[in-house]
């Protein structure tokens, strides 16, 4: 039997649906999905099986105009993920069309895409009429020579099977890169931190979610099969601590409950989750915090 395996990088603007597509392809939640932009910080790899092929999805941070060190490190990680991949898929939101951000990505592909198979996936097709979709596809294909164009809805599952089947056929022949039952190459400690960060992002508003990070400090396997997980939420300012805790600790309790329930579902066993909130004014400039997120501190320069 001939097996295939390789990396597929999903690139696009923030909120284009990359994390949703990764989760849909893999069939499990390996990348956090929220309505807020720039939630994917590290390059999360999800592993999908299609016939004899193993597709490793690199879900990169959204490509946007970076303003601060963390932004620059995220954008560098996104292009780095594309440069390391066998196949690149550019995701564009159907209802937003060719924005300035999409145009910048197309220009970046002139260099990164050389010698690679690059496909176009127009996402959220349920939001626009067929004529607009065809016009957008024609416009994008005139701007860049895509190997193939797919019309999909990552959220609803339209067109996903065709895309996965095509990707499987484009990967190089070779042995599988991960064990058959493995769905992500992130350590469980980082997945647990991402789950908590998603709940914080959903619950809190404005800029605060980008001024905080979550680290799993301790993971203890218990004799009864359960796990005790201790996490620290680092915030940049004193005032942020009160926002995360909420009135009489109600906000942090709700976040803890939601995160614990999702961890239990993901792990298939009982979890005892303990959260602490600490103020760390300069965490956005600490190399250790970046490596914890799978980013390169130097890329933020």
UniProtKB/TrEMBL annotation:
It is a peripheral membrane protein. GO terms for cellular component: cytosol; plasma membrane. CDD domains: Era, KH-II_Era. PROSITE patterns: G_ERA, KH_TYPE_2. Keywords: Cell membrane, Cytoplasm, GTP-binding, Membrane, Nucleotide-binding, Ribosome biogenesis, RNA-binding, rRNA-binding. The keyword Chaperone does not apply. GO terms for molecular function: GTP binding; GTPase activity; ribosomal small subunit binding; small ribosomal subunit rRNA binding. Residues 12-19 are annotated as: G1. This is GTPase Era. It comes from Thalassovita mangrovi. The gene is era.
